[in-house]
Amino acid sequence: MFLALLHFNLKLTVRLVMMEQDKELLFSVGSGALMREFLERSLSSRDRSVVSFDSLQEGARAAAREPVDLVVYSVDGLKSPPDDRCLEPLADRLIPVIVLSAMNGLEDRTSWLRRGAVDYVVKPFEIEDLSARVDVQIRRIRVYRDLLSANERLSQEVKKMERLAIVDGLTRLYNHRYFQERLRAEFRRARRYMSPLSLIMLDIDDFKEVNDLHGHQVGDLVLSTLSRALKQEMRASDLPARYGGEEIVVILPETDRASACAIAERLRKKIEGLRFTGRNNTPFSITASFGVTSLDNKMGSSAQLVETADDSLYVAKASGKNRTSAFERQSG
Q1: Do 185 and 100 share a structural domain?
Q2: From start to end of the chain, where are the E strands?
Q3: Helix, strand, coil % over all residues of the chain, rounded to 5
Q4: CB-CB contact of 284 with 318 (8 Å)
Q5: How many domains does the chain have?
Q6: 147: Cα separation from own chain's centroid
Q7: What is the pLDDT of residues 36-69, one digit of tens each?
Q8: Which of 84, 146, 177, 310 has CA 20 to 30 A from 119's CA?
Q9: Are residues 138 and 182 in the same domain?
Q10: Spatial distance between the Cα atoms of 83 and 154, rounded to a whole number of angstroms
Q11: Are residues 22 and 105 in the same domain?
């Protein structure tokens, strides 16, 4: 009954703390009821709530669920640390622990400090002294947590900026510069490990007519919609990028010519099935032509992959558009 009432009071206290974000939450654990009552009464204030627990283990379990700032652990009698890892669950959550003990020897103090306590106070003590130590430790941990939080936010912003630097703003595909970097890296890797590498280059057929008939905003919508559709078909290892204008390239690591052609055909049919609404609610669809190339022994640079993919794309366009053409090196 007592524990149930205690847990209810704890939840109520924590709710109030959550409503007042700056209010401190302190756990008092261990020792007898009189000591817990004394600490709770003495350390509580308008800006701080104190919740008591019978044991360190119980306090640690509650600390795993609630945003506690500090634990004051009052050790019974001449008790030594129960084990080397007794404070570890609290330390892992960046919760400082002040130990209160009647043991006054150097070894007693250092044994608790080595186990993770941030401070050690000998009984009997002046409550003003303990209160000052509590204030200092709560300020320190809050500053430290704020720094960790700020560092995490900064890290996320850096990652966001890094991604923006390599992503095309309209299509959300990788940009031309990043494509060239990755293609060179994949070319070197494929050469080193003698693994297959393919490249797809595609171009929207008659895209100028889309812009002329329906406006550039619709043209942008076509590009962004097509890009999303392509990304849905990509494998984790594939790298789609905007090469320029309405041209898109896809790096296909560990992919031979036959597999690359099959992927290109799947993408071509996906694009062919897209539907759009243009000016004056006019429905229309688009097609794209694909050029496919694969690394062979005569290619000396990644630039030759781009050249042969472009040549194959030209063949697809010249052959009637909305088709896939694969590069074949002429013998001799």
Answers
A1: no
A2: 24-30, 48-53, 70-74, 97-101, 119-122, 197-204, 239-244, 247-253, 276-277, 283-284, 288-294, 324-326
A3: 50, 20, 30
A4: no
A5: 2
A6: 19
A7: 889 989 999 989 999 888 888 888 888 888 889 9
A8: 146
A9: no
A10: 38
A11: yes
Same domain, 203 and 315: yes
Which CATH number belongs to the domain containing residue 240 in this structure?
Answer: 3.30.70.270
Cα 224 to Cα 217: distance, rounded to the nearest angstrom = 11
Q: How many residues does the chain have?
A: 332
| Mean pLDDT calculated for residue range 207-216 | 96
Helix H or strand E encompassing 228: helix 216-233
Asked if residue 170 is part of any domain, the answer here is no
Active site residues: 246
- The model's pLDDT over 139-171, given as tens digits with 9 standing for 90+, comes to 999 999 899 999 999 989 988 888 888 999 999
Close Cβ partners of 250 (under 8 Å, ≥ 6 residues apart): 199, 200, 202, 230, 234, 238, 239, 240, 241, 263, 267
Give yes or no: residues 199 and 144 share one domain.
no
Identity of the amino acid at 126: E
Specify if 228 maps to a domain: yes
Structure tokens at 202: 């595609």
Q: What is the span of the domain harbouring residue 10?
A: 2-153
pTM above 0.90, yes or no: no
Residues 157-177: b if buried by 16+ CB within 10 A, e if exposed:
eeeeeeeeeebbeebebbbee
Which two structure tokens, joined as six digits, stand for 245?
A: 């204008």
Same-domain status, 115 and 225: no
- Structural tokens at position 69: 């700032």
Residue with tokens 């090469």: 243
User: Same structural domain for residues 135 and 181?
Assistant: no
The tokens for 200 are 């797809």
167 domain residue, yes or no: no
